[in-house]
Amino acid sequence: MGRTKRSIIPLLLSSLILTACGGGGENNSVTTSANAAASVAPQDTGVPQATGNTATDGFNWFNFRRRQLGIQAVNRNTVIDSAALGHSVYQRENDTITHEQTVGKPGFTGRTAGDRLRAAGYPLTSSAGFAYGEVISATTDTSGANAAEDLIAAIYHRFVIFEPMFKEAGVGSAGRSGGLTYFTTNFTALGLNGGLAQGNIVHYPVADQTRVPRNFFSDNESPDPVPNANEVGYPVSVHANITDSIEVQTFTITPRGGNALPARLLRKVDDPQTPESAAAIVPLTPLTAGTVYDVRFVGKVSGIGANNVPWSSNINRSWSFTTQ
Question: What is the pTM assigned to this prediction?
């Protein structure tokens, strides 16, 4: 198990509605890699078989989790693969983890993720708008599934990975024997359509999920989603389409038969790193092993429908999951 670094370009809803996702800084984290195999139960369906290829295994793991949520799996695109691979090679050659490349340095393919996608030949344009996001992992562990599972645990990264409207993705990994393996994934949507039905949300962990991790190391993500704390409970999140906004009225996590846990609420109004289309709670202490947790979310999802007519739907959702 190696030390892991990850970074994302956070979703910026105001830009996404109009044109694209990009910029806005980085979120970095350093933790011990997850064990993806330990996070699935025998009854789980669609668990991908490891191929030994970091990029492919990471891509397949992201789609496995997206299907569990009930959102569309992304299609792998070889042009996006090229952009992602180029960035992983750049990071390896320069011994860095970053979203922004520097002209003149070895392996330069484009300053930003958008530049690199365009340079690879991917058409970041659509009359219906477009979006993209990037997540990065660098670890001595070569398992793509572990890298993907660890990125999902990091809440700001999860907002990118579980965006329902993303349609395509590309992955690339590069490393040296005995050194770090860099794993880059770019998600895209040409046309801000599809995704969830109007007024719907999805959540993670999903209903009746078992073997959910107990903890998350908040200090390892920057900006820190839970200031003044490090080892906290595993984040719970809700996600709507990127073109929608979520209003939180009640969001709680409660051990079965107990009291609601103190938790930090992440929502756009309080936290600039959280997109308007998502929200999360992070328990302030690690969860208890082998315990059923009940989650309740009450709020609203709003958006603009056909003919620019605003709509709003009330959401009252309850579900449970069990920890490892």
Answer: 0.91
